[in-house]
Amino acid sequence: MRFDTSQHMKLGQQMKLAPRVIQSMEILQLSLPALEERIEQELESNVALEAVEPGAEAGDVEQAQRDERRDDTANERELTIDETGSNDFERLESMESSYSEAFDNEYSAASVTRSSEYEPRTYSASRHGGERDGKMDAMANTAARGASMHEVLLDQWRLAEAPDEVRRIGELLIAHIDDDGYIRTELEKIAELAALDGVEPEIENVEKTLKMLQWALEPSGIAARDTQECLLLQIDAIELESEEDDGALVQFVRKLIVEHLDDLAQNRLPKVVEETGEEMERIKEAMEWMHQLGVSPGRMLSDETPPVIVPDAAIEYDDEHDVYVPRILDSRLPALRISAAYSAMAKDKSVDKSARDFVRTNLTNAQWLIDAVGQRSHTLLRVLNVVAEAQRDFFDLGPQALKPLPMTQVADQLGVHVATVSRAVAGKHVQTLRGVMPLRRFFSGGTQTDSGEDMSWAAVKAALKEVVDGEDKSKPLSDESLAEGLRERGIDIARRTVAKYRGQLNIPPARMRREY
Fold this sequence. Notes:
Helix content is 52%, strand content 7%. It is built from 23 helices and eight strands. The strands form three sheets. It has a four-stranded mixed beta sheet with strand order 3-2-5-6. It has a two-stranded antiparallel ribbon with strand order 1-4. It has a two-stranded antiparallel sheet with strand order 7-8. A hairpin with a 2-residue loop joins strand 5 (429-432) and strand 6. Helix 16 (353-390) crosses helix 19 (418-425). The radius of gyration is 33 Å and the shape is extended.
């Protein structure tokens, strides 16, 4: 075996993104709340970055902006607006070079190391002059996290009078209650786990403890093992508390749940009529009464709150010029500027070199963040301008007029990479005259109608929903009939596509939509 070394030349091309460009892409992808949080983190960690107070005088702000310009080179460097957008990220790369040149001209002997990440630094109280920290005050005034479902149930169970062994079995049973309020684990398995925990209960004791739980815990129906038991427990509680004289109806509902629950769930009402010998009106009356029962009692104890949607932009109608005009909703964001004091410190040769290097790094990071936030707004606004123009019919007529708008088409029109459009759209919401909706909704493929008009898949779904809403509920349309109804509107799609879109719209099949 022979080992030797040699030299070879290889010609190739590689594309590398500077860390600053990667950070700018990340900021472009952030939604408004996430960007607000990112800016707050940078304000805390970067001593050179300041938020302009809302009540600051215009003259003071202008003076501060003049003071914060580091030198003539930095004075001339501005974030230019390129209407074609062909060099969005090329400009970001040039920013990094201009920052380096500006600092090198000012500090020829200084060596600066710029971090590619925004690392948290030690928070200095002196920066705020000893004032109270507003963020700490806000945290202190924030409401505590609500109790979980299991914590609420355990608190209820502690009030029950039971021997220690039964109490421990009950706690183990509560631990196996899922988010819907059911115990889906076999009781034998729970008994085995209790034995491992030091308690060796008989299965009969576990079953008795379960019955105690079902009567002791609220809401009624909690700790049931299936839907039928859950509904029956709720009927038991209603009978115990109700003083109304509807016992016959309640007993009939109980019989339906015990003997015909699957048929009711599958909307096989004629079969229920045949097997019970009751009139259809009696069955429908019982089903109407059943609406007060719930199949997920555990959800009543969950402390889940829907996420708050904060629109990043708005598209409004300008009746004077008959156009839809996009607007960036960034009033939540603080106005940022470079600290004049730290900018002067970076130029002061009497300051220790390590301190000046630290300040220069913070000045670079601060200026980059300001430019990246501005670039985000600029790119997002350009994308919204294309959306407002391309989807004019949607804003005028509604969802059925939504047109196909692939991201590649928008990228070509703006002269940017499709990844830029994707990041600008990701996680963003836009406020329109037709409500707040995800910006991504305006970007989709589609099909052509018989008349040659483009129609997005979202518009096809809207047309499908209209056909379903207009059907005779006593004779609901099958998927094939729905496809035929769409073809009559000039939309030619297959039956399996109709079934797919019907499922996405949470529209049940024909037999489940039938009303007797």
